[in-house]
Amino acid sequence: MRESRLWSWHILSGVIILVLLGFHMGIMHLSHILLFMGIGSGDPVQADQVFQRSRQAAYMITYVLLLGAGLFHGLYGLRSIFFELSLPKIAEKTIGGILAVAGIGLFLYGSYIAVVVFQMNGVGS
Amino acid sequence: MQQKLKNRIGILGWLGGGRYILDRYAYTVHRITGLAILAYFIMHIFVTGQRIGGHEQWESTMAFFSKPVFRIGEFLVFLAFAFHALNGIRLTLVELGWLIGKAEVSEYPFRDSTRRHRPVFIVIMLFAAALMLIGGVDFYFVMK
Asked: Which residues make Cβ contacts (< 8 Å) with residue B99, sequence separation at least 6?
């Protein structure tokens, strides 16, 4: 039951990533084509653009969502790779625990950054 | 009692281990691109964390990562994303049973579920190739 539940979250997080990362990739990596079509302005990694996006609540929320979905999807995939190797039960439990702790730690760090930058005031902060 | 069989081939099974067809190699590429994206993602969390240092810190970080070797790496990650995302859509639809057809009596010539959705696999790979091409145009040709 637990494995089925984790697999379902893996699929769900994949769908979330498809939407959110699709937008992110479009904004960050197809910016010149979008600019050519009259959508958006400027270099998306320029400091002003980055901080302008980071200070919008919608972007902060989507960054945190994407962070959580991405970490779960990626680390569960990595766990699946390890678990296919017919490791002893104790090794499986250890790997699962390490990946869970790493995922939670990275999520807390990334969320902290997103919230702190969201709360920053003014240009050059 | 059901015997649990050991995976004797291990990671080498990704390269071959029987009569592998195209879809089995797509699975291998899906795994490799997934690992590449995960590695990039973890580094990306720390790089974007430099925003906490303000505009100057961010600009100096971006100046460091604007070198050609990083631009090539960024494009490779985009290629990996294009394949992984679109193949992931196919895998999700297959695992939910939407592309494999209804169960039917097996009659020669036999058609397995993998071959039954082969046209969808080809169309999705064409979409992935188109996305990679568009990304390449943006990375290297448009407004440079």
From this structure: B90, B93, B113, B116, B117, B120
- Put simply, the answer to whether B45 touches A110 (Cβ < 8 Å) is yes
Report B:113-142 residues touching A (Cβ under 8 A).
Answer: 134-135, 137-139, 142
Rounded to whole angstroms, how far apart are CA atoms A76 and A82?
A: 10
Q: Are A29 and B134 in contact (CB under 8 A)?
A: no
Q: What is the predicted pLDDT for the residue at A122?
A: 53
Question: Residue B16 — φ and ψ, nearest 5°?
Answer: 170, 155
* Residue B86 buriedness (CB in 10 A; 0-12 / 13-18 / 19+): buried
For residues A50 and A114, is the Cβ–Cβ distance under 8 A?
A: no
B69 touches chain A (CB under 8 A): no
Give the separation between CA A28 and CA A44, rounded to whole angstroms.
6
**Looking at the predicted complex, does its ipTM rise above 0.85?**
yes
Quote the pLDDT of residue B11: 78
Q: How many CB pairs under 8 A join A and B?
A: 91
pLDDT at A121 > cutoff 70: no
User: Per-residue pLDDT tens for A23-71?
Assistant: 888 887 777 777 777 666 667 788 888 888 888 899 899 999 999 999 9
Average pLDDT over residues B41-49: 95
Give the single-character DSSP code of B6: P
Query: N- to C-terminal Cα distance for chain A?
Result: 48
What residue spans of B12-67 are helical by DSSP H? 22-48, 54-65
Report residue B103 as tokens: 């169960």
